[in-house]
Design goal:
The chain is an alpha/beta fold and about 210 residues long. It has one domain: 3-Layer(aba) Sandwich (Trna Endonuclease, Chain: A, domain 1), CATH 3.40.1350. It is about 25% helix and about 20% strand.
Length: about 210
C-alpha cells in the first residue's frame, strides 16, 4: 500500500491495471479516469488481503484471478436488462478451462430496495449465461453493501439476502470476501480450493 497525503495507491497484482488509486473525500488530487470511492477502495484492499492469505490454496488449485475496473457508461460493460447497469468491477477467475466472470458492485443500499434492478441482476445474469450456451463460462453478479444490515427495513433476513448475492462489507469486514469467493466456487464444480458449501477456507473451519 502506497500513501502520499490524500492519495492512496493499492498495488494489486491480480488487477489488469495497477496500481489502483483512491483519494480521500475532500482531497484536492484529481486523477482520470475516475478514482475509486470509499467502498470500491475497501473492496479492492480486502480482496488483495484475501488473495495474500490464500495464495497457496489458489496456487495448488491452479486458479488464476483477475480484477478489472469497469469503465463508465458508454465505454464499459453494461446491461440493458438491468436498467443499463454498469457494475463497478469484473472479477474473473480461471480454473481447468472454466471461466467464472462475476460482476461486482460495492454500493450503499439506503436508496435501494429488494426489487432494485441492481439486486435482481443476480437472477438475470443467469438468463444471459443460458443464452451464451457455453458450459465453460459461468456468470454471477454480487452487491457488496456498505449499508449495515441493521439499517435496512426490507423485511428480508440476512440469510435470504445472501442468497440474493447481497453481502455486507461493514458487518463482516473479515468474512464477506471469503463468502463471495465461496459462492463463486460453489457455482464451479471444477474448483477445489473450497470444500463445497464452505465460504471461509482461511478460517480453519472447512
Amino acid at each position: 500500500m502506497l500513501r502520499a497525503g490524500d492519495l492512496h495507491a493499492c498495488n494489486f497484482n491480480g488487477h489488469l491495471f495497477q496500481p489502483l488509486f483512491h483519494v480521500r473525500r475532500g482531497g484536492k488530487i484529481t486523477i482520470l479516469p475516475v478514482v475509486l470511492n470509499e467502498s470500491e477502495y475497501q473492496f479492492v484492499t480486502d480482496l488483495k488481503a484475501w488473495c495474500d492469505t490464500n495464495k497457496d490454496l489458489l496456487k495448488s488449485d491452479g486458479t488464476e484471478l483477475f480484477l478489472l475496473r469497469n469503465l463508465s457508461r458508454g465505454k464499459g460493460v453494461g446491461f440493458f436488462e438491468a436498467g443499463n447497469f454498469h457494475p463497478d468491477f469484473i472479477l474473473w477467475t480461471m480454473n481447468n478451462n472454466i471461466q467464472s466472470v462475476s460482476f461486482i458492485e460495492p454500493h450503499g443500499l439506503v436508496h435501494e430496495g429488494p426489487g432494485s434492478d441492481k439486486i435482481k441482476f443476480y437472477e438475470r445474469i443467469k438468463e444471459i449465461e443460458k443464452r451464451l450456451n457455453d458450459p465453460s463460462v459461468i456468470l454471477n453478479s454480487f452487491i457488496l453493501s456498505m449499508t449495515p444490515f441493521s439499517r435496512l427495513e426490507w423485511g428480508i433476513s440476512r440469510e435470504n439476502l445472501e442468497k440474493m448475492h447481497v453481502l455486507f462489507m461493514k458487518d463482516e469486514p473479515g468474512q464477506y470476501i471469503s463468502k463471495l469467493m465461496g459462492m463463486i466456487s460453489n457455482d464451479n464444480d471444477t474448483v477445489t480450493f473450497f470444500h463445497k458449501g464452505c465460504s471461509q477456507p482461511d478460517s480453519g473451519a472447512c
